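User: I'm writing a short report section on ligand binding and want a predicted complex to refer to. Could you take this sequence and zinc ion and write out the structure as tokens? A short remark afterwards would be nice.
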Amino acid sequence: MSEQSSHSKYEFKKKLEELRTKKGRGTELISLYIPSTKQISDVTSQLRTEHGQASNIKSKVTRDNVQGALESLLSRLRYVEVPENGIVFFTGAVDIGANKTNMETTIVEPPQPIVTYRYHCDSAFFLEPLEEMLKDAKTYGLLVLDRREATVGLLVGKHIESYRNLTSSVPGKQRKGGQSAHRFQQLRLIAIHEFYKRIGEAASEVFLTVDHKDFEGVLIGGPSPTKEEFDSGDFLHHEIEKKVLGLFDVAYTDESGLSELVNAASERLADIDLMVEKKLMQRFFEELVSDSGKSAYGEKQVRENLNIGAVEILIISEGLRAERISLKCSNGDYEDTVTKNFKPGDQDVSAGSCPVCNGNLEILERVDIVDELSELADQMATQVEFISTDFDEGSQLMNAFGGIVAILRFNTGV
Ligand SMILES: [Zn+2]
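Assistant: Sure. The structure tokens for the complex follow:
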């Protein structure tokens, strides 16, 4: 996975974690999923109806909160421009403790298209459709073929879409009377070759237009030896050929063959992601145990190496949750930037008191540590990779190394 999509996945995940912690004191938190195909005027008219019905709510507090949330949504919708993937609003009076609530709105632009319009009012936000997207946000190219038919499609998340269906004019194995066997065989081979070429062109049209940062690879299905013959020939564009993940036995070559292919490859798909992460962690551990000096771990050491441009790959745990906080004493005698871990939903950070004069410290700025480190990495052309905590080395990264390690370009002695 590329740095860009990996970082935005991290951001998206963090946002969902925050939303998950928010609770209403009654049934008063509204989740509104709007696909790009939905008319905003239809949405506003539904919200107005809900507003009217909310007047029947018995509890005055809940009633006021629901109507307040609906009014806030209605005014936001007046200026909304719905992006290509749709938009989601989470609005409501969130319980902030001490018998208080706070009217909050979070707007999410999803990484995959919203399929279904939803209006949902509950004591928690409705997050399932977005959580599904987090699980499978990748794109794979799908190609099934035999000598008579081929279908080209994409697997986006869990969704399979067929884009092209081709049929051939390759004659069957039985020749007609009057043709010489040799001539017949020659024509047949030419027709097969032509058909494979057309399949390759269709694959280029579909696969090369996918944003390559999201494109994980290509799966090819069909009977043997046809798919092997196609794959070993020079029919696929070299950029696509490099991305072939495997060949799988599949009986159908129409649209239903695409789902057959995805089923046949499902184990392989689950492994690919994990393999990439495992390999990276293995490389880190190899550097660590060797005397190359080309590894660093812990925030302080990694930061120093980042600053001097010595980091080749910055490796961050998906479990890392921390902020960089800039502090300043109101008496002007002390300034510092510190790192503070946080749990999702943490609202306030106490600044503490000045170590010089014991006066009050002010918070000047709070930045997510991943944003801050990524920006540093950017300036130094450092690659950034995120590692899940779902496997041994991944949870070791979080628990034993504080979630931040690096592979260095050279030994810096830092
Ligand atoms: Zn002070």
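A remark for your report: Residues 7 and 371 are 9 Å apart (CA to CA). Residues 329, 331, 333-334, 354, 356-357, 359 surround zinc ion (CB under 6 Å).
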